[in-house]
Backbone:
């Protein structure tokens, strides 16, 4: 048990006879302070300073003050200015049990080191042009809130950045426009962006994800179906990409005409769940321009591709653009969910109780240190090249079985003759001690950790080669 | 660094000259095994046994095998049968960094002690009639997935539990019915169920939560506006509740007629965010019967009320029913999000990568131990009674300032003359070291921790009394 903290001057409590006479015997005093103790106004100078710091990074509109969770105990919350308050807002975690159980309500009362840890972790790998990040608990919440940020941004533009009308405020309470406008997000067939209901309306990889769940009438564009290796089919691929981009523009116009304007476009740099479908940097460049031309936000979903597996920290860095996106969402390898965004897409109304979990930032800072110290992105590039070369060789060796080997870094995939053969190969490989996963209709995807070295690749290619021989 | 594990028999790797010659020098060998090692088929007997155990509690359709995360390292995943596999599915966490960083993909590869820890934690406090629980990362995800479970359940009934048609499968991919049916969830004005887009369509507490976000055309019923103390206004209150229930039935019929049948009804036992609005057990009993009569699922959202603050572990236990709900969702005080559900509402398609975080179950088991050992629910009942009596006294003393004191356990609230006065009281109380929160238009809510004792109540009432005197 922690030692009983000496009660400091309690400058506010004047016990009156009325209640004094009823006071129960104290128990568990060792966990608690004796009463409130106020040193400054709230928020005090330290809280104000930290709010200013955090305001450079994310929304601080809902923050009351910063907490010192180490000093907080029992029914008392201690802030970073040393104010000790009797806590009647205890919506959240019973932090009296242990400092570790404590999961602060980041949206209202973040811990003191939160801005510093954000800078060391998420901000240190921020995509080009983005200095703001909003943390979230999972990938679906990250995309869901990114969509909300795009809707709010788009509607603010429509309103000329004026305050919402009374009609806006009253109609939204009953789910009706103009308060809840009929905006849409344009997504791509084959895309996967999560399973909550907003995300799900933009997910189109497998029927089983979507079946029986009500959805939105939002436009869905074709994602280019390219031939691999990309560099051998440049002409055909460019035609296919042009076809898809034309369709995107048509859909934007159609949906505007039917009163459901496209507030944002969401896309993965590599369609992962949908079968590891790649497109060229030229496609993404033109798509980004189409978004800008039509006033739609451009949201790059890096939940699967972010974190280094493609050999760059963000897959969209391969496009070589100065201004690749308005929003970049992440999760998985980043340990925490969230999204980076342009300043103008800041929405003070994006909020929930937890807003992620700051303990994940501590871990992420360590992970990033290891990635840098061990040059893991170079390692990924090297291993990925060896892996893809090996897949090309096996594809030449088994042309009836394998096709379309493709990849960036170790983020690789290959197509198998058919679904049944694919599943048999996955099981046989597992029996030989290699865990592989499927994606799309008949692809196998490779998703090793960043510490996957060339000798692991060789080990894998040997097993894979044995398994393929059994299926030829 | 962990000691280098002795490589066990590697029964699958036959290194061939082709790749052998290219093998890179190993680094970081201290973190890794030398190769795969298979002891049994996968899943092995231990994995099968654990899958069976977990199958009694939640969905196991997507589980491959159970993992031994302590033994897993580097690029190798070790399962509970001792099989060591080269991991090419590393979508998730770099578990090589530290066992603690490891956040298992519960949906696919849960850790060995997961069923046991679920039984010790969440199942040990399961609501009446419910033996199944699905964990989730946050409150919004919990409700969002509960809605999906209700939609899937409802559609399965419609289909006579037959397989989905080809038309179902193809239409859902483009967000259209019948695959994405026009089902609705009936919610109540003043309710708060979260901020993702499905949840948000059932949230009606503040315009600012909903403004600018597209929504669904779902029915919204009035929540009873009762007079407090409830026992002094039984006749008027019963009339008001009857009016609301009649409206609920009308809405269900209307929405069925316009082709948007009500798959589920969602309600809070006490509308929290909306202003601490109470209803009587009789109201909830009749509402539950209406749901049953019309074939809609009945979802009780205990995200705010669950965990003991009302003096019972679940607020709906105050209704005294044998079969109070089909789904009960939770988060906040429970440390993890999720929902309990009836067997028939099990949906194998409810899934995401993380499905919550098992470390939270460990903490919850400890929290529950403390709640039992310290009889905290009795403590809450005692402190709550003292708090409410004190609020009644102050309300008599300041009739122009205070009204409608109400509460269950320490889950109490009181109305203030107007919004401006309420906010002034909140600030003044904070300056005196008492943290209070607002809810609804002009209410103050009390949400102390479960360890809030009677003497804390007296301390608070003194401060509150001083603050009120300044505003009279």
Residues:
């Amino acid at each position: 048990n922690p030692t009983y903290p000496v009660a400091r001057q309690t400058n506010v409590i004047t016990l009156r006879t009325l209640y004094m006479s009823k006071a129960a015997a104290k128990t568990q005093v060792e966990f608690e302070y004796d009463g409130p103790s106020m040193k400054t106004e709230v928020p005090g100078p330290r809280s104000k300073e930290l709010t200013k710091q955090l305001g450079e990074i994310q929304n601080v509109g809902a923050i009351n003050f910063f907490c010192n969770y180490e000093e907080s105990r029992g029914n008392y919350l201690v802030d970073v200015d040393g104010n000790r308050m009797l806590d009647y807002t205890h919506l959240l975690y019973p932090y009296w049990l242990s400092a570790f159980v404590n999961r602060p309500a980041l949206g209202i009362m973040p811990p003191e080191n939160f801005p510093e840890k954000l800078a060391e972790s998420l901000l240190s790998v921020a995509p080009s042009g983005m200095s703001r990040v909003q943390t979230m608990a999972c990938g679906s919440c990250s995309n869901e809130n990114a969509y909300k940020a795009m809707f709010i941004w788009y509607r603010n533009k429509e309103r000329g950045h004026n305050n919402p009308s009374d009609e806006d405020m009253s109609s939204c309470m009953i789910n009706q426009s103009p308060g809840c406008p009929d905006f849409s997000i344009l997504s791509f067939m084959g895309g996967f962006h999560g399973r909550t209901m907003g995300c799900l309306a933009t997910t189109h990889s497998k029927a089983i994800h979507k079946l029986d769940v009500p959805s939105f009438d939002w436009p869905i564009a074709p994602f280019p179906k390219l031939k691999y290796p990309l560099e051998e089919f440049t002409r055909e691929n460019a035609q296919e990409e042009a076809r898809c981009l034309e369709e995107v523009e048509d859909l934007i116009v159609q949906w505007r005409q039917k009163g459901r304007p496209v507030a944002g476009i969401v896309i993965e740099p590599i369609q992962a769940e949908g079968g590891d479908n790649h497109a060229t940097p030229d496609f993404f460049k033109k798509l980004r321009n189409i978004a800008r031309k039509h006033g739609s936000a451009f949201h790059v979903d890096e939940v699967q591709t972010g974190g280094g597996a493609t050999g760059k920290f963000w897959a969209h860095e391969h496009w070589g653009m100065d201004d690749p996106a308005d929003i970049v969402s992440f999760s998985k390898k980043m340990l925490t969910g969230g999204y980076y965004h342009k300043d103008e897409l800041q929405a003070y109304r994006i909020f929930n109780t937890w807003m992620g979990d700051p303990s994940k930032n501590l871990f992420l800072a360590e992970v990033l240190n290891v990635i840098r110290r061990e040059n893991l992105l170079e390692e990924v590039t090297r291993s990925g090249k060896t892996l893809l070369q090996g897949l090309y060789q096996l594809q030449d060796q088994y042309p009836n079985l394998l096709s379309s080997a493709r990849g960036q870094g170790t983020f690789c995939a290959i197509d198998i003759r058919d679904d049944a053969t694919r599943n048999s190969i996955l099981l046989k490989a597992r029996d030989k001690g290699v865990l592989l996963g499927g994606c799309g209709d008949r692809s196998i995807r490779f998703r090793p950790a960043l510490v996957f070295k060339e000798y692991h690749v060789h080990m894998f290619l040997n097993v894979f080669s044995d398994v393929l021989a059994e299926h030829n």
About this structure: Residues 211 and 264 of chain B are 24 Å apart (CA to CA).
